Amino acid sequence: MSDNERKVNDVGGLPGGPIDLHEHANTLHEKRVDALVMLMVNPRIGAFTVDSLRRAIEENTPQEYASLGYYSKWLKAVRQLLVEQAVLTEDEIEAKMADVRKRMEAEAHA
User: Fold this and answer.
1) Rounded to an integer, what distance in angstroms lies between the CA atom of residue 29 and that of residue 103?
2) Which stretches make up the Nitrile hydratase beta subunit-like N-terminal domain (predicted)?
3) What is the pLDDT of residue 19?
4) Whole-number Å distance between alpha carbons of 38 and 45
5) What predicted TM-score, i.e. pTM, was given to this entire model?
6) CB contact burial 46-75 (16+ within 10 A = b; e otherwise)
7) What is the DSSP code string of 53-82?
8) Better pLDDT: 16 or 48
């Protein structure tokens, strides 16, 4: 397989610098993203599969893949899959995000 045929996550054998192998405790945000994904792939809910999550992550552009953190890639993929599966629309997601931003700003100024 040539470099042109590689998926964005297929970096084996390519120079990429050192890898940080230090353990760290997951942040609350990371725990929430993990819990959300575990719920969505649960067969009783079945919003999407782990395989589709992987596909969505691998569809990131090289720039997105390099700049997004591990759980940010998951969250971006969850959003994409929920729209693909017609669980939510982009408009519904954007409206909820606007509500959350407004509430956070109000709390910050209180």
Assistant:
1) 18
2) 7-106
3) 79
4) 10
5) 0.80
6) ebbeeebbeebbeebeeeebeebeebebbb
7) HHHHHHTS-HHHHHHS-HHHHHHHHHHHHH
8) 48
Residue 93 · residue 83 · CB < 8 Å: yes
**Cα torsion 69, 71, 73, 76: sign:** negative
- What does the pLDDT read at residue 2? 54
- Give the contacts of 53 (CB within 8 A, at least 6 positions apart): 37, 41, 74, 77, 78, 81
Alpha-carbon 22 to chain mean position: 22
**Sign of the alpha-carbon torsion through 51, 95, 30, 13:** positive
Report which DSSP code applies to 5: G
Residue that is written with structure tokens 């090289």 in the block: 62
Does residue 106 contact residue 96 with C-beta atoms inside 8 Å?
no
**Whose structure tokens read 């591990």?**
70
Q: Is the pLDDT of residue 38 over 60?
A: yes
User: Which pLDDT score is estimated for 3?
Assistant: 53
